[in-house]
Amino acid sequence: MHQYRDLVTAVLRSGEHKPNRTGVDTISSFSQHYTINLRDGFPLLTTKDLSGSRWHSLLSEFVWYLSGEEHIRSLREETSIWDAWADDDGRLETAYGRFWRRYPVPSTDSQLPGEAWPVDDHRWRNDDGTFDQLAYAIEQLQENPQSRRIVISAWHPANAAISTLPPCHYTFVFNVQNNRLNVHLTQRSGDIALGVPFNIAAYSLLATVIAQQTELTPGTFAHSIVDAHIYCGMGDRGAWYGEGETLDSLRNRLEAVDNPSEYRDVRSWLLESAPSEPANQSGYDHIPGLLEQCARSPRSKPQVAIDDVSLDDIGVENIHLSGYDPAPAIRFAVAE
Ligand code: THF
């Protein structure tokens, strides 16, 4: 899978130094897009190891999306990847599943015409008056697969205004061509090293599950990332990337690479020319690790098989990965 290497190098070559709310600076690029064919294997990155506890975290996160829960009480027993954004009680304002499965609708007295779709007998109205977007999408794919309106939104303006972390991957569209189920994901903000590999895998799993439920074949995963960024460290190290010539030199060196193994030389240059004892020992500077990853050749894609269970019954144990032979793991620290 060449797309990930292309994404990393595109962000480094076109991105600008950008401090942000987390306190860990980024190299940030506006608007990246790529597609991945899901017919020739499952796009779990092979240039770093995402098996074991990482695969378990990824699957648990995916099952949590499908669950419709607005808290992480079950999720946090399986993985800590969401803990930083929830309160002690496990409540989280960025609950994708809540919006996918139980999208809130205005109360009857404030509804305008056309906002009243979850009328009492609507098939996809939940008992609490919320709307199950995913169930509705499945029905549309079965009954009206040529539809160009099969859009699921996790964006809720009132929620976004108060949330500690509004949804990053906030909307996706199903589109069928030749009996193939394509998914187009739009993401407002993408952490290239940590989140994006998880997001690629989660939406590819979603395409696989929904294709299975609708008797379609998984087609293409398309991904648009508005702010595509690579965390580059804090303190001296972050600022160092922001200083005039560093990024230019990095870009020139990336430009001169003919053979991917040379990304390792760029990495060595970067580490040698960094200010003494960079404040990146904690792993917040993702650039060296990503350059190592770019130097590695992608291996053949693994396969995923999902048991034939209903959407509401899918658990981690129903998703089976085989033929995964990744390069060694790379450690990156997550900016909160
Ligand atoms: N915030 C930031 N800065 N980056 C993100 O990717 C991100 N997310 C979610 C919410 N906020 C974010 C959380 N998702 C890992 C993976 C996904 C996350 C958060 C953290 C992570 O640390 N992955 C490790 C392994 C974890 C493990 O072993 O359990 C890895 O090496 O991949 C984007 O959705």
What is the CATH superfamily? Thymidylate synthase/dCMP hydroxymethylase domain
CATH topology group: Thymidylate Synthase, Chain A
- Could you tell me the strand content as a percent range? 15-25%
Helix residue percentage: 25-40%
Distance between the termini: 29 Å
Largest sheet, spatial ordering of strands: 1-2-6-5-4-3
The number of distinct β-strands equals 8
The CATH class, by name, is Alpha Beta
Structural class, by secondary structure, is alpha+beta
Major sheet, described briefly?
A: 6 strands, mixed
Order of helices and strands: HEEHHHHEHEEHEHHHHEE
State the gist of this model.
The protein is of the alpha+beta class and 336 residues long.
Any descriptors?
336 residues, alpha+beta, Thymidylate Synthase, Chain A, two-stranded antiparallel sheet, 34% helix, binds 5-hydroxymethylene-6-hydrofolic acid
